[in-house]
Amino acid sequence: MTRTLRLRRSLLAFDSPKVMGIINVTPDSFYAGSRHSAADAATTAAAMLRDGADILDIGACSTRPGAEPVTADQEYDRLAPALEAIRRELPADTILSIDTFRADVAARCVRQFGADIINDIGGGTLDPDMKHTVAELGVPYVLMHMRGTPDTMQGLTGYADVIADVLSDLAFKIDDFHQAGVHDIIVDPGFGFAKTVEQNYRLLADLDIFHQTGCPVLAGMSRKTMLWRPLGIEPADALEATVAAHTIALMNGADIIRVHDVRPAAQSVAVFNLMRQNDKGRKYKIDTFTR
Fold first, then answer.
1. What is the edge-to-edge ordering of all strands in the sheet holding 256-259?
2. N or C, which end of the chain is more exposed by having fewer CB within 10 Å?
3. Residue 35, beta-bridge partner list
4. Is the C-alpha dihedral spanning 188, 189, 191, 195 positive or negative?
């Protein structure tokens, strides 16, 4: 059965995996190539749509460990001119996701600029008002798994079993959000957030298990530490590794891949769809831990 999400203007069906393009209107995101000013956000967004993006994810508060603190007002003041330009210059049906863990910022972006999705790294843990705000707004919600905060998360990687523990935690939070009135949820296992490199690869190998939640699954590994550090390179050199990781994610059931580089990701989706269309009925999961 094809999974769907109810957006404000339409129904989003996951008959094909979707590409979510990252636009950060912040000066300190971990990957310099993703940093944009509000003035060039619309140009970047238009280029991403041409390259094959289905969703644009706009963020204005870096969540890398050690990033400078940003207040809610500062975050919104960065987002507002970028969103205004995008809404003015791009087609009205452009799907916009807001990457924020703050309920107030989420509400202002939805009400002022018609944002379609809220993408919350905290999964509701960093702002207790988030679940009730999202329910009131009636927009889909990306519920990501994380422990602690961006500054403390890397000391919180002790799991009995990372797959079982992350799945259980997401299931508990999904139920909590459902009870609050949020029904359209995307789950994200949170690659790089309170996970070791080895744990990230276990999540990637068993990504399909997160469909047990009944929700679409988002995979976001673009240029992250799990890719560049084991290879002895830097984020700027990790495009090929990113494409490889997201291709594995597609084969293991990802419904959305969140990427800095839209064109290669869209081509990966196209090739995956060609394989799927011409080899129906076969399971594509890559089990890297039994070979």
1. 185-188, 141-144, 117-120, 96-99, 55-59, 18-24, 256-259, 218-219
2. N
3. 24
4. positive
- Phi, psi dihedrals of residue 61, rounded to the nearest 5°: -145, 110
Number of H helices, E strands in the chain: 9, 10
Closest residue by Cα to residue 106 from 144, 70, 147, 59: 59
Tens of pLDDT, residues 109-143: 999 999 999 999 999 999 999 999 999 999 999 99
Rounded to an integer, what distance in angstroms lies between the CA atom of residue 97 and that of residue 59?
9
Instruction: Quick: pLDDT tens for 189-224.
Output: 999 999 999 999 999 999 999 999 999 999 999 999
State the pairing for strand pair 11-13/185-188.
Answer: unpaired
Query: Other CB atoms closer than 10 Å to residue 131's CB: what's the count?
Result: 23
Dihedral (CA of 26, 10, 189, 272) sign: negative
Residues forming the active site: 224, 258
DSSP letters for 205-257: HTGGGGGGGSS-BEE--TT-HHHHHHHT--GGG-HHHHHHHHHHHHHTT-SEE
Angle between helices 38-51 and 72-89 (to 10 degrees): 50
* 120, 166 Cβ separation under 8 angstroms: no
pTM of the model: 0.92
- What residues contact residue 17 under an 8 Å CB cut-off, 6+ apart? 250, 254, 255, 256, 257, 269, 272, 273
